[in-house]
Amino acid sequence: MALDAPEPAHLPVEHTIPRRYVALGLIVLAAILVGTLIVIRNFSETNDASDVETITPAPSSLVSSITGVPTAVASAVGVTSPNSPTTPPSPTGNTSLWQSSGDGAGARPVVFFYGAEFAPYAAAERWPVIVALSRFGSFGQLGLMQSSPTTAFASTASFTFWHSTYDSVWVDLQTVERYSELNPSGIGFTSLQTPTPRQAASVAIYDTSDTTFPLLDIANHYVLVGSSFSPSVLAGLSQSQIASDLAYPNSSVAQAVLASANEVTAAICTVTGQRPAAVCSTRGVRAADAKMKIKPTA
Question: Fewest Cβ atoms closer than 10 Å to its Cβ: which of 25, 30, 206, 285?
């Protein structure tokens, strides 16, 4: 598959992290290979530029409805999603914690999202990621975005983390939107951002296909490659319609998005020391703990 080609039309599958990638030393080795990685991913692409597309900010009312899903609704869903089963993040087996730079209280576990605006699986996964992260902090800005109209699950409604803002005392959110949704030349997609050496090391270790979007790395302890549920559950719906459905625990949209959000939350709680307790002890997150065989320490 060409590295700048759209993703294959397949349903998400559970990925098992090979033991040979577990050793921390490979992170250092992968960092050495960053130059090669960036050359590969930049093949036939333009240089990074901040003006390759115009971002339409999501209305504050829309952001509030997504980031303010009531705990009772998420707990009612738990991990139940019969129409679109979810795949939770997998434990990496690594004991080293990826933290932000800083001393003492300034160092926070890193949640790294590596996506591309054209990719439908990344479009789907941003929904539960945003819901989950809103439990640990707040988004100041999100941009409206749809996946490419020329790929599988065309024009899946979503958001972009390109120029987004997020604030949290619990985690450090790092995002890279590698390519745009625009395809002006008809060949490949426009480059938006390149990962830092540490971010590229995560991609090199955990995304062994080197072509999949998205990758979600939770502090080097849990990883999800691809989307946690099929983008088909969002087909034909606008951002506003999806946000509206999140209020109804019996809807297929709420079940897929919130079950996945509970699983992502449970994984994040393992690296924050089960804090904040008001989030990590909710019934929905405990249900995810049970599914993922997590033994909370608090």
Answer: 25
Q: Residue 54: its pLDDT value, please?
A: 80
Burial label for 150, CB within 10 Å (0-12, 13-18, 19+), is: exposed
Element (H, E) at 141: strand 137-146
How many other CB atoms sit within 10 Å of the CB of residue 173? 21
* pLDDT for residue 186: 62
The first and second tokens of residue 235, run together, are: 């087909």
Look at the block and give the residue holding tokens 């270790």. Answer: 205
pTM, entire model: 0.82
Tokens of 60: 């504050």
**How far apart, in whole angstroms, are the C-alpha atoms of residue 55 and residue 145?**
8
Confidence band for 49, pLDDT divided at 50, 70 and 90: very low
Cα angle: 220, vertex 81, 157; to 5 degrees: 75
User: Shortest CA distance to 173 belongs to which of 140, 150, 148, 206?
Assistant: 140
Token digits for 193? 């951002």
Tens of pLDDT, residues 196-218: 999 999 999 998 775 679 999 99
Tokens of 2: 């060409």
Q: Which token pair is 104?
A: 């003492």
Amino acid at 25: G
- Torsion angle (degrees, nearest 10) of CA 107, 140, 134, 178: -80
Cβ-proximal residues to 278 (8 Å cutoff; 6+ apart), any chain: none
